[in-house]
Design goal:
Strand content of chain B: 15-25%
Number of helices of chain A: 5
Mean pLDDT of chain A: 70
Strand content of chain A: 35-45%
Low-confidence stretches of chain B: none
Structural class of chain B: alpha+beta
Shape of chain A: globular
Structural class of chain A: alpha+beta
Oligomer: heterodimer
Mean pLDDT of chain B: 96
Order of helices and strands of chain A: EHHEEEEEEHHEH
Helix content of chain A: 25-40%
Number of strands of chain B: 29
Radius of gyration of chain A: 16 Å
Number of strands of chain A: 8
Distance between the termini of chain A: 41 Å
Radius of gyration of chain B: 28 Å
Chain lengths: ~210, ~800
């Protein structure tokens, strides 16, 4: 499935890029995002709750950023799995400045599998665009101060782990000085939207266990 | 005198029960059973690197989780390749649970048993499978170019290559006055029965026996496969087919993974276990059919007579080949239809793709073959400017040429020899029924009024009643009631009615006194199954023979009791009478009593059979060459298939603006030999036409390039409603009895669907004025074709 879209954010390109790099912002603005965790250079784990109609669920997955060209573009590769299905997506995000605002174009190519792939396909593109729209609106609200600002000295709940605030925007803590070099925002907005999927803290445990019955 | 039952439109005895909701389908059984949910692959092609079930273990009510590593012995081997063929050089079948690799979305990976389906699904959701995705091969073009492989050890994705040739087709085409070349395509569809697959197993630990109920088209096939897979003696396994809510081909595949895993779990857990497939599972883990690409080269003379034909086609067999090459073999042979070709060559490749397996669906390869041939006929007529029916007629095999040997080997491994049919007479009937000769005037008048209408025609021949055999058992009880059993299964064909009609005539009993049981290995353990329009031909014939044997025994016993010559006896309404001697009669039930010498009387009637009453003191009560009771058991095993045929015509109208396609009239001429029950045959034709309309205009399997089936629900997979099925399908019968079986029957079950793609393509081409080469066709596709045509012209 291919989904492309555009958003205009009323903020300068550097600030937009910065916001998209800020896990504390992202965790608040990605629709359904529950948790975000840095797992390596430009690599993250994430948990998202999303769905199409009644096919809802929690997705756990990973995100890898590539081809970073601050502040103008990057490519995000995300994959996740959850009860409603699986998703893998490659999203290209381009930022351009236009009269003080920032135009963001995203281009996603996603493979959506499982239940949601089989029974939700014809709504997926629409849902993805809607979620992406919510995401960019959320980011813009943070940037323009319409939303409660991210606290000056946010602290992660654990090193590198960010949780979404409880309803509506509680204080989000991000540890000062933590290098937040990632750009998940668009990625996730679009990717999560795409499948309604997500990423998680959960690392696939090994050991092929089974119930001896 | 009893009215003859065969040939009468007897109302189906099944219907009152089924229509009142009293049917007992698989999921109506086993309310005490533990239930199953299956973890299925979300990837079309991937390596499984890890399966972690630890998160699922604390789900309440969980009873067991099985993965491949839990399987042992024959159960750990790949599922059987049911129909091997020498040309199937690279046959592959899946494991009951995926071992290292998955090859289609929907392939079973883990099998979870819990107190109920909800809990089982909860557990499935908590199993974490790690995959390494591999490139997916989707669609025939990708399979054919072989750049990516489905199975690494199958070069070119080619499961099989098969060539059959009669004469020198290339030379005949080259020498012909005219030549044409066609490129054709047919998309996938599926059987899509209302009831999906389902299995229930009870293991009796005390008796060391398994009883299995399954929604199948072959209970004996499942029995043999399950016994083998579980290491049981055949005698330890009973398979019962309950009411089956439609099969249409898909349920002839066996054993499904669930059919071996359910009894495996039932034995392990010591309690009944049930699997009921849901609709999405049916889309992604049962079977599909139809997908082919075809190239036709044909040479012909000025009259439209075909001189040589060469067909090359590519058949999408999906990820595995459990059912061998049956579908493409049928396409390649039945393509010839009612026509004779001096030279014919056909070559096909059966190719792997990372999609659901392809196995017979009603019509089973014939719709594709008929599409190729009938598109060719229309192309030849168009090229020569001749009437389309006339071009067909000049190519017909004539009635005096029967039996006609096409020189090919059919799907049953036997020569493709047509046994009967009168194609010129069928065509005349169809032309008259549809008003063929007035069509051009009607079309011109419609066009003048701004309407686009088209008339299509398509002819087919259908090999039915393939072997190896079926059997029948007929028993007259002392009540006078008759119990009939045959091993093949029923899934809506009205067997209980049609077989009873046969027995009623053979034995002279009332229809209401006859009870027919099918698909229960306890009642009849030798059988093949219900497919290839074979039940009436095979079991109908076997039951007729069995009834004749029972009748002979009745006459023998009655002759003795009535002190008459058996040749003077007649049976009607369950009473044996001496012809011309009023009052000299004996009820069938009494005959049954007398046929079973008794020591112990259990009621008034049975006193007549006790040892002080019957028998000659100097002879054994049961003669050496006889047996007690009135029973007949016989088998019918034909030399080869019998060939039914038919011709369809459809009138369509296409909207000049929206390209919507609507059906104005649908006409069928059908020859299935002796008709047992015209109402059932017409019902079969109606149902077939309905499915054909779906296949021609609506249904397709929308796989994306990653192998995800995007329309795996009835929301997106369009099946015709009653509003899309033509009103008042007009049917005319021609009965040319088959010489191959005792009743002259030819199969009728698949007929209605076989020419659909061809006949609709013919009609739409006629309406639009350009050839339709790919089916199904949607309004948007027709709209796009119109745009391209316009562009090409300008």
């Amino acid at each position: 499935m291919k989904v492309a879209g555009q958003a205009v954010l009323q903020a300068p390109i550097e600030r937009v890029f910065q916001a998209l790099n800020d896990p504390a912002v992202l965790v608040r603005t990605i629709p359904g995002c529950q948790q975000l965790e840095a797992t390596g250079p430009d690599a993250y784990a994430m948990t998202v709750v999303a769905g199409v109609a009644s096919i809802k669920g929690s997705y756990a997955g990973t995100v890898q950023l590539a081809e970073l060209q601050p502040p103008t573009s990057f490519v995000l590769r995300a994959s996740g799995a959850g009860a409603p299905g699986t998703v893998s997506a490659e999203v290209t995000v381009r930022l351009t400045e236009q009269q003080g605002a920032t135009v963001l174009d995203y281009d996603a190519d996603a493979v959506v599998g499982g239940m949601i792939g089989g029974v939700g396909q014809r709504m997926l593109a629409g849902v993805a665009k809607k979620l992406a729209g919510e995401f960019f609106t959320g980011v813009e609200a943070v940037l323009t101060g319409a939303a409660e600002p991210v606290p000056a000295e946010p602290v992660p709940v654990a090193p590198g782990v960010y949780r979404a605030p409880e309803v509506p925007a509680k204080k989000v803590v991000v540890r000062a000085g933590e290098p937040v070099s990632f750009i998940l925002g668009a990625v996730f907005g679009a990717a999560a939207a795409l499948a309604g999927v997500l990423v998680g803290v959960r690392v696939a445990q090994s050991s092929r266990g089974r119930n001896d019955s | 005198m009893t009215t003859r039952q065969v040939g009468e439109p007897v109302r189906r005895v099944e219907d009152p029960r089924l229509l009142r909701g009293d049917g007992r389908y698989l999921d109506d059984l086993g309310h005490d059973a533990a239930e199953v949910a299956v973890l299925r692959s979300p990837h079309a092609h991937a390596r499984i690197t890890d399966i972690d079930v630890s998160g699922a273990l604390d789900v309440p009510g969980l009873l067991a989780i099985y993965t491949y590593e839990d399987l042992a012995g024959p159960l750990a081997d790949p599922l059987p390749l049911l129909i091997p063929h020498p040309a199937l050089t690279h046959g592959r079948t899946q494991y009951a649970l995926a071992r290292d690799e998955v090859n289609y979305v929907g392939e079973a990976i883990a099998f979870v048993v819990a107190e109920n389906r909800y809990l089982a699904e909860d557990a499935v959701q908590r199993i974490v499978v790690s995959y390494e995705p591999l490139p997916a091969v989707v669609g025939l073009a990708a399979a054919r170019d072989g750049e990516q492989l489905v199975h690494p050890d199958v070069p070119g994705n080619r499961a099989a290559n098969l060539v059959q040739e009669v004469g020198d087709a290339a030379a005949a085409i080259a020498a012909a006055p005219h030549r044409l070349r066609l490129e054709l395509a047919i998309e996938r569809s599926a059987s899509m029965p209302l009831e999906g697959r389902g299995v229930l197993a009870r293991w009796d630990a005390d008796a060391d026996r398994l009883r299995l109920w399954t929604s199948t088209q072959t209970s004996t096939g499942v029995r043999a496969a399950v016994a083998t897979k579980l290491g049981l003696d055949l005698g330890q396994v009973e398979v019962i087919t309950p009411d089956v809510g439609g099969g249409f081909g898909v349920k002839i595949v066996h054993p499904w993974p669930e059919e071996v895993l359910v009894p495996f779990a039932a034995r392990n857990l010591g309690r009944p276990v049930k699997f009921t497939e849901d609709r999405r599972e049916h889309f992604i883990s049962a079977a599909h059919e139809r997908g082919q690409l075809q190239q036709v080269e044909v040479g012909f003379d000025d009259t439209g007579r075909l001189l040589g034909m060469s067909v090359r086609f590519w058949h999408d067999n999906g990820a595995y080949t459990p059912y061998g090459l049956i579908v493409p073999i049928i396409t390649s042979t039945q393509l010839l239809g009612p026509y004779k070709l001096p030279a014919y060559r056909v070559e096909f490749d059966s190719l792997y793709t990372n999609t659901v397996i392809v196995t017979p669906y009603r019509g089973a390869g014939r719709p594709q073959g008929v599409f190729a041939m009938e598109r060719t006929m229309d192309a030849v007529a168009g090229y020569l400017g001749l009437d389309r029916a006339q071009v067909r007629a000049v190519n017909f095999i004539q009635p005096d040429e029967m039996p006609y040997d096409q020189g090919l080997i059919f799907q049953d491994g036997r020569p493709l020899v047509y046994d009967s049919g009168d194609f010129p007479a069928s065509l005349e009937k169809l032309k008259k029924l549809v008003g063929w000769d007035d069509w051009r005037d009607y079309q011109a008048a419609a066009r003048a009024g701004g309407r686009r209408v088209g008339l299509g025609i398509a002819c087919y021949v259908e090999g039915t009643g393939v072997g190896p055999y079926e059997g029948g058992h007929v028993q007259v009880e002392t009540s006078g009631k008759v119990k009939v059993a045959t091993g093949l299964t029923s899934q809506g064909q009205g067997h209980q009615t049609a077989f009873a009609q046969i027995v009623a005539d053979e034995l002279g009993v009332k229809l209401s006194d006859i009870e027919v049981v099918t698909g229960d290995t306890r009642r009849f353990p030798y059988a093949v199954g219900t497919f290839a329009s074979r039940a009436a031909v095979m079991s109908g014939s076997a039951i007729a023979l069995a009834a004749r044997a029972a009748r002979a025994k009745v006459l023998k016993v009655a002759a003795e009791a009535l002190e008459a010559d058996p040749a003077d006896l007649e049976i009607s309404d369950g009473v044996v009478r001496v012809a011309g001697v009023p009052g000299a009669e004996i009820a069938l039930g009494t005959v049954a009593v007398l046929a079973n010498p008794l020591r112990y009387a259990f009621d008034e009637a049975s006193k007549a059979a006790t040892q002080f009453v019957v028998g000659h003191p100097d002879q054994p009560p049961v003669p050496e060459d006889d047996e007690p009771g009135i029973e007949g058991r016989d088998y019918y095993s034909p030399l080869r298939s019998t060939f039914a045929n038919g011709m369809h015509a459809v009138m369509v109208e296409t909207d000049p603006e929206t390209a919507e396609i609507s059906v104005l009239r649908y006409c069928v001429v059908h020859d299935c030999g002796t008709v047992i029950n015209p109402m059932i045959v017409e019902g079969q034709v109606h149902g077939g036409v309905a499915q054909g309309v779906g296949g021609a205009l609506y249904e397709r399997m929308a796989y994306d390039e990653a192998g995800q089936l995007q329309n795996a629900s009835f929301m997106d997979f369009l099946m015709p409603y009653v509003s899309e099925v033509p009103d008042g399908i007009e049917i005319d019968h021609l009965e040319t009895p088959s010489p191959l079986n005792p009743l002259g029957i030819k199969g009728a079950g698949e007929a209605g669907v076989i020419p659909s793609a061809a006949v609709f393509a013919s009609a739409i081409s006629d309406a639009e004025g350009f050839p339709i080469t790919s089916m199904p066709i949607s309004p948007s596709e027709l709209f796009e074709l119109r745009r391209q045509q316009k562009e090409n012209r300008s």
